[in-house]
Amino acid sequence: MKVVIAGAAGQLGRALTGILANRPNTTLVEIERPTYDVSAPAVSNQIAEIAPDVVINAAAWTDVDGAEANPKAVYAVNALGAAYLADGCARCNALLVQISTNEVFPGTPGRIYREYDLPGPGGVYARSKLAGERAARQRHARTIIARVAWLFAPGGSNFPAKIMAAADRLGALQVVDDEYGNPTYAPDAAAALLALIEQDRPGIYHLVNEGSASRCEFARYILARSGRRDVEVTPIQSSEWPRPAPPPLHAVLVNEAAAALGITLRPWQEAADDYVSVVCAHDA
Ligand SMILES: NC(=O)c1ccc[n+]([C@@H]2O[C@H](COP(=O)([O-])OP(=O)(O)OC[C@H]3O[C@@H](n4cnc5c(N)ncnc54)[C@H](OP(=O)(O)O)[C@@H]3O)[C@@H](O)[C@H]2O)c1
Fold it and tell me: Which pTM does this prediction carry?
């Protein structure tokens, strides 16, 4: 099986290549800028020339707050990029896996979101990701939309890494306690994605670690497990932490579709334990 990974150097991309690099009968093609720019129409031809069996699009503009001031550039990557990759996949009948986000949902407090629930994105990033989902599916029927959330992995720029760094710098933290999501370990999401690809069933899937947490709960868990239990954490409301792109408050995903195929992810706390042990071993 020949697998192309766009965004191979990102958090999810690295987790995917980490698994696929050692998999027998697999040819891995990592595509990255500047040679391969998903926002350039030429990428369709490039994909058709590679003629892969599967393309996983983990490339994206992921600076959610920075997206607000740069909508054109954001849509070029997140929406047009998905469309161009879909065109390339259509020409060689490759399976396309388009990675998306919990942020396509409005995140109404108290709600949880299944695969068939209606999206309602807020900011530029979220709208561009939904546009990417739609463009990919419209242009190529053999598309899997895989929504993930709150990704973290060793070496990435992610919430737990920022929390640990801020704790070491400041000694005490204020953390938002009314924004909920599914902390999701990129290596777990990658393994689930590959299991899904083997089943070859196009559709929409939610691949998140089991359970949900507020930002504050997630931060406290990471601090306790990483030997920073004494760091004082004060819960605050998201209104006290204004951001250019206010996140959905309760965009908590439920995995129903992949679970029906036997693909589930472990509780986020177990994944966070693995993350902390890798990061702490690296820092020791
Ligand atoms: N991180 C999260 O918490 C989160 C949550 C929900 C959903 N997601 C989704 O999950 C996917 C993976 O996220 P991630 O955290 O792994 O992202 P990441 O670490 O920010 O990596 C994104 C990758 O995309 C590449 N990229 C950006 N623009 C590109 C372009 N025009 N052409 C080719 N490559 C380009 C980047 O390469 P450069 O180094 O060249 O910039 C980088 O390697 C994305 O679809 C994201 O929207 C992420």
Answer: 0.98
